[in-house]
Input
Amino acid sequence: MGRYGLAFAAAMVAAIFATVFGVLLSKSELAFEHSGGGLLTGSDWNPVAGIYGAWPYVYGTLFTSGIALLLALPVGIAVALFLTELSPRWLSTPIGVLVELLAGVPSIVYGMWGYYFLRPLFQKPVEPWLQDHAQPVFSGLGWILHWIPGIGPILQDWLDMLFTGSKIGLGFLLAGVVLAIMILPTIVAISRDAIKAVPRLEREAGYALGATRWEVARAALRSAKRGLFAAGTLGLGRALGETVAVLLVIGNVATSAPRLFAPGATLTSTLVNQIPEATEPVFVSTLLALGFILFALTLVVNISARLVIERPWRKTP
Amino acid sequence: MESPERVGVSIEKDHPSCVIIRRLETRSPLKTFAIPIAILIVAAAFAGCTNNVPPSTSSPAVSTPASSAPTKTPSTPAPAPLKADLLESGSTFVLPLAQKWAAAFSASNPGVSISANGGGSGKGKGDITANLVDIAGSDSIMDDAAIAKAGGDIIHLPVAAGAIVIAYNVPEVGSTPLKFNADTIANIFLGKITKWNDPALAALNPGVSLPNEDMAVVHRSDGSGTTDTFTDYLSKANAEWKSTVGKGASVTWPCEKVTPACTGASGNNGVGGQVQTIPYSITYLGGEWADITKVQTGVVVNAAGQAVAASAETVGASIAAAVSTGAFDDKLRGSVTNMDCPTCYPIAAVTWLLVHEHQTDKAKGEALVAFLRYVLHEGQALNDDLNYNPIPAAVVAKADAFVASIDYNGQPLATMG
Output
């Protein structure tokens, strides 16, 4: 009989998924009729005129989540490796507890910390310093790349404006950094478990062959590859969906330029900003369509991550 | 899982295989509880279907479930004390005040509990249309089409007035308020004025040393009645604003394309906080928040050419002018911005409570009428405490007539109370 209970629980999950998907799809039908593909590709968002182009929000979501993953994944794996392989037990246990505590901190707290503590720091020393010192490096890189036919000049344009913007602290970079800090505990916790799960025999074999501690750690990292990938995926999923913390630090402007210091907006921040006062049926439907786009985005991320991990096109496991 | 024999290792007591086998042998607690839990869930789901009556004014008075019957008396005799639970949602502009009114009214009428929930004017209008709440707070009106959708009997009661002020953070300028007019405000948010020492601002403020600094323009990122009023004013007072931006609770801000430091923040508290912390920033915000967020505010030149600061008198003058010029219609709907009188503060706003004229629950209707009367009269004294402005007496008299028309089954409820 136990299996029916479990099957019931599993069926509930499937039902919830189907309902969320169905409701979002049916409610956003009006928006897709109104805007068509322009909803995804247009960059003009003007509810007064009834023009809805959500590209800047899709862009903001991808840009900030990308920054977050780029910063958090290497650091997170490094911390996990240190905790499992190198640190003495008296240190790894308390740090492990701290990581779990940080993973449980509500996102609004990270947002407020970002707004009150990080923003002034970004405004004064961080962003001007990056513009003076990092921008020349990237501009130089752009000059080298611009010889590539086709995309070269575009890349150069992008790299030329990477470390520019309003420099008031609020913007893509601050949002990305706050997100990175938020997803770091998740990434550390999952990678640590993945590395821990590497069989002891493998390590012992390594030592038996005369490998150093560091070499054994690196081998363990290679064995734990899938787990690390899962850590990245889960972290990215959290970053894509994060709302309130981003709202506080991103500046809430529809921007689609690769400027790290420019204020931007994400799908989620736009939703929470505009839903309370949306009364026009098309406007409401468009906001639900943004939810649908976000849902589809996370689905694509999850599926592609799964494909990379499982590699069904390969014969051998 | 490989069996230990095959590997040729002697079985240890805590070898993983043994642990698994031991666990399988003991009866899983899940098995014991799964069926009762599943039954409970199914039962709860069914119970939810039958008991889940939405808190609506349209449900008949007597259809309360048996379990809660003792707490509710459906047919209250006329002289008995008021007894009802009222729900409010909507405008966050009026929310702090609505909560004070509710608390004060419940203190003298212990049988009545009023829960004020906010959520935004759009939510309030949607909720009253769907009969989910008894009172909706809104900073904008419902037009005839919207009223028809809500059953055709929505009445608008102006209950509080307020000003939207221009707040800024310019360390070089002291506490003497800077002067703005419609064109400079419009041009700042259009992205045409980007420096604090712009000639247009300097001409308005002779003798003030304005710094050569970039403006950080802050606007509301969330849809808001404050933005609606602010853009309503600019649409009336500046032709370019009207043609390029227009009026709405969420608009596209042209300065975002021009001024690098044009950003949005959520809520009055958000924009106020941003202006307080970012030097050379400027925003518009609900006047009652200027004190809370400790920001410097400016004066605005009105349609009659006078520079006016926001106050109870200057906002009241705007409402009076709106009533006398017909900017307010006979249903007390209208806009009070950009009024042409010497003492009018031009960016004035009114907040309404929206209720159904025809009540479907007598006890609720009686409590509602008593509460609305309280809000329009004694309750107005609380407006000052929270830095809102009271509604002028001439408008209150008109609103009283609407409250008197609220009925239950065709009988006016006001005479009973």
In short: The radius of gyration of chain A is 23 Å. Chain A touches chain B at residues 1-2, 4-6, 8, 44-49, 119-120, 123, 165-170, 247-248, 251-255, 262-263, 265, 269, 272-279 (CB under 8 Å).
